[in-house]
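We were asked to recover a plausible sequence for a given structure. The inputs and outputs are reproduced exactly as logged, with field labels preserved.

PROBLEM: sequence recovery
POSITIONS: 359
GIVEN STRUCTURE:
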């Protein structure tokens, strides 16, 4: 029987990947406390349904930064999809398009931006880390614009990659046959140099990420593109307010999959204060620990406009390629539509803070 839940996809995938690759995908920073904190935060929230509402024709569709989606759901940026499947991001893009979901492509994708764009019928955003070599950013932005990408997502919670003990223990490095093909090889060389007791991913970030950038630098990026700008990794309401002042179009409230600051506030717990701080002046996306369709409903009740799902997309990709990613997205979409009906929410806009209870 095919996997029916995201948990089953995870279980069936674990044994198919080399142990160092699995640890790279599944591991967290420091004590790995954040790997469970996000799930715990969502599990504390209970849904409060309304009755005698016409839910004979529920519509989960939304528009996000000008793109129509089948549901308030997108795939978070994750590097090197070819680690788990030969087609890599091309297979993921095909699946996202089939499901009507947004795909956010990592700047460290293992397939070209153009090939990814050609494979999907859905919207694409491009994720960026701020590198010391700004000309690399400019080139990526230009290529994204030419290929039809619809927004830029700047990751702001990673001035450097945090210590991840599993990767250090494995001396993890990106295998020679897999590359971040959209970035100059010289910029990426440190990612491939494995060493005992050290993560090549962390070493690369220390070498190439610009940890000196501030809010003032956003103007430089704004001047070089007309695409909407999204900031990913915001957890403080003060930063959310500053982002709005800088003209940012959307925020991704995120713990980076539990891979950056250990013992941080979980994204679901941070979201209500951020909703208050932005006051409807930009769109909000909750990222982290999304495993059930009910989590989408919880995020909407908390004030998010959409959610991002991360690791489960790679579980599906490793499991059965594009078909597996489509199935993972369909599981979430089917569960969410059922929750809509049982909550008495015929439209996404019907979800609100009165629909949840915190325990």
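RECOVERED SEQUENCE:
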């Amino acid at each position: 029987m095919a996997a029916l839940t995201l948990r089953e996809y995870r279980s069936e995938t674990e044994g198919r990947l080399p142990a160092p690759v699995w640890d790279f995908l599944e591991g967290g920073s420091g004590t790995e406390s954040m790997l469970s904190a996000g799930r715990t935060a969502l599990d504390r929230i209970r849904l409060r349904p309304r009755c005698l509402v016409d839910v004979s024709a529920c519509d989960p569709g939304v528009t996000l930064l000008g793109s129509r989606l089948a549901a308030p759901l997108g795939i978070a940026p994750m590097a090197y999809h070819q680690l788990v499947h030969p087609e890599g991001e091309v297979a993921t893009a095909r699946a996202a398009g089939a499901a009507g979901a947004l795909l956010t492509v990592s700047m460290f994708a293992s397939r070209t931006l153009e090939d990814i764009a050609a494979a999907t019928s859905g919207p694409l955003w491009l994720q960026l880390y701020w590198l010391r070599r700004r000309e690399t950013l400019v080139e990526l932005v230009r290529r994204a614009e030419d290929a039809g990408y619809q927004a830029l997502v700047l990751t702001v919670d990673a001035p450097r990659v945090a210590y991840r003990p599993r990767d250090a223990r494995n001396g993890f490095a990106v295998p020679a046959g897999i590359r971040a093909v959209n970035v100059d090889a010289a910029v990426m060389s440190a990612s491939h140099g494995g060493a005992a007791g050290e993560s090549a991913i962390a070493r690369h970030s220390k070498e190439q990420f610009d940890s000196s950038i501030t809010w003032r630098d956003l103007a430089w990026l704004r001047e070089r593109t007309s695409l909407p700008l999204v900031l990913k990794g915001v957890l403080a309401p003060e930063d959310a307010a500053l982002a709005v002042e800088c003209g940012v179009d959307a925020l991704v409230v995120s713990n980076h999959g539990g891979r950056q600051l250990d013992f941080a506030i979980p994204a679901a717990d941070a979201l209500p204060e951020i909703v208050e701080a932005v006051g409807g002046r930009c769109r909000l996306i909750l990222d982290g620990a999304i495993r059930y369709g009910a989590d989408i409903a919880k995020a909407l009740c908390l004030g998010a406009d959409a959610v991002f799902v991360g690791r489960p997309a790679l579980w599906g990709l490793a499991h059965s390629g594009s078909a597996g990613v489509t199935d993972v997205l369909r599981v979430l979409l089917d569960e969410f539509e059922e929750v809509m009906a049982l909550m008495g929410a015929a439209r996404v806009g019907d979800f609100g803070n009165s629909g949840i209870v915190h325990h």
